């Protein structure tokens, strides 16, 4: 979808096997904060996600969506389609299109198998880090800094940026308004306090994400228009506004 070359040596089975432990840890850590499956927030997340999953052609995966009652403004996905959304991000998302921005990003990670790619890349990075230490830094004092700032963090930001781009296409194809993505990330940026040094983070700065999304927007709007979303959404609005029958 993005034309990027990459190295991958982790199979789907290996990826899912390694994710089971992480999944169990997350479920144990937040066991007292998990909202029930029939909670309005959980149903809301599942409803929006269902359209994006269909657009991605990934209905065959055993998806799970968990909503965690926490002020943390975050969401993440584990291999195998295990998505976790914190309630703190829902006011930032503000509406279905904003939530589709968040979920499109997470589903894009699964579609692109970024977790497996990170595992594969880590093997290469560790080998190169070892070679660097043997040749230039026998004490290993600089190795970690070089690996983090020079390899691991830039690679993580690259995957996050790619997930933003793929997620934007997925939400547009699913007839969510892609223009809301820039508004959502602007709202997120407005909640962030203090100076954020992008090169020290695993994720791009919110303002940089807005810039990227604006650059990709013409292509996303083309996808949205080709899906005849304006007509589809107009009919949906008509049905939603129709008066209910009372007996």
Beta content: 5-15%
- Determine the fraction of residues in helical runs and give it as a percent range: 55-70%
The first-to-last residue Cα distance is: 51 Å
Q: Give unreliable regions as ranges.
A: none
Tally of helical segments: 9
Question: How confident is the prediction overall: mean pLDDT?
Answer: 84
Written as H for each helix and E for each strand, in order along the chain, the element string is HHEEEHHHHHHH
Query: Biggest β-sheet: count, sense, barrel?
Result: 3 strands, mixed
Total strands: the figure is: 3
What general outline do the C-alpha atoms trace? globular
Rg, please?
Answer: 20 Å
**Quaternary structure state of the chains depicted:** single chain
The chain-level structural class is mainly alpha
* Major β-sheet strand ordering: 1-3-2
What can you see in these coordinates?
Residues 43-216 form the Peptidase M48 domain. Its cofactor is Zn(2+). One of its GO terms (molecular function) is metal ion binding. This protein has a three-stranded mixed β-sheet with strand order 1-3-2, sandwiched between helices. It has helices at 12-29, 40-56, 90-93, 96-112, 114-136, 143-173, 180-191, 206-226, 229-241, and strands at residues 64-68, 75-78, 82-86. Helix 4 (96-112) packs across helix 6 (143-173) and helix 4 packs across helix 7. The chain starts with 11 loop residues before the first helix and ends in a 6-residue tail after the last helix. It has 247 residues and is mainly α. The chain contains nine helices and three strands.
């Amino acid at each position: 979808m993005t034309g990027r070359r990459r190295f991958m040596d982790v199979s789907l089975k290996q990826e899912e096997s390694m994710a089971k432990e992480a999944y169990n840890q997350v479920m144990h850590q937040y066991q007292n904060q998990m909202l029930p499956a029939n909670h309005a927030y959980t149903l809301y997340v599942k409803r929006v996600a269902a359209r994006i999953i269909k657009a991605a052609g990934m209905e065959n995966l055993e998806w799970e969506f968990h909503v965690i009652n926490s002020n943390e403004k975050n969401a993440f996905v584990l291999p195998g389609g295990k998505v976790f959304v914190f309630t703190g991000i829902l006011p930032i998302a503000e509406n279905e299109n904003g939530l589709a921005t968040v979920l499109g990003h997470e589903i894009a990670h699964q579609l692109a198998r970024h977790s497996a790619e990170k595992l594969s890349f880590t093997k290469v990075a560790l080998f190169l880090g070892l070679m660097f230490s043997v040749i230039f830094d026998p004490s290993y004092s600089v190795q970690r800094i070089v690996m983090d700032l020079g390899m691991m963090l830039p690679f993580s930001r690259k995957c996050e940026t790619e997930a933003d781009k793929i997620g934007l296409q997925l939400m547009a194809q699913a007839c969510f308004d892609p223009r809301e993505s820039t508004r959502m990330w602007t709202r997120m940026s407005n909640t962030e306090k203090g100076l954020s040094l992008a090169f020290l983070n695993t994720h791009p700065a919110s303002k940089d994400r807005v810039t990227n999304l604006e650059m990709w927007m013409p292509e996303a709007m083309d996808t949205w228009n080709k899906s005849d979303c304006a007509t589809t959404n107009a009919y949906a609005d008509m049905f939603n506004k129709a008066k209910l029958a009372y007996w």
